[in-house]
Design a protein that fits this description.
With 111 residues, this protein is an alpha+beta fold. It has four helices and six strands; from the N terminus they run βαβββββααα.
Length: 111
């Protein structure tokens, strides 16, 4: 059985400092691994290069934000929307209804 690896980290996640919307602490990056058995899959890369693989195990690695103090976990896209709202309000801490409004209104952008 062949093992294939795939890793994805957005450029903004490397250079931007993000803060928790519940407690205001600086967020840390946490690695999330997903392993799946596949018989055929295709990966499209930039510049119209398409890679075809046959059966094997695909190990995908991505990153999420995690708050060290309260344990809140958010994806990069969710945190970008929250950071935009934090900048508008000029406060790191947002109320719960404000957070849910942001995430519900922009559900199409997150997925």
């Amino acid at each position: 059985m062949v093992k294939y690896y795939s890793m994805h980290i957005p450029c903004g996640m490397i250079f931007r400092k993000m803060f928790c919307c519940r407690c205001g602490e600086k967020l840390t990056k946490q690695k999330v691994k997903n392993t799946t058995e596949v018989d055929k899959f295709i990966i499209s890369r930039p510049f119209n290069i398409t890679i075809f693989y046959s059966e094997g195990t695909l190990c995908e690695t991505s990153y999420v934000y995690k708050c060290p103090s309260c344990g809140n976990i958010t994806s990069y896209k969710q945190q970008c929307l929250i950071a935009k709202r934090q900048k508008q309000v000029m406060s790191k801490i947002l109320c719960e209804e404000d957070i849910t409004d942001i995430l519900i209104d922009n559900i199409d952008e997150i997925e």
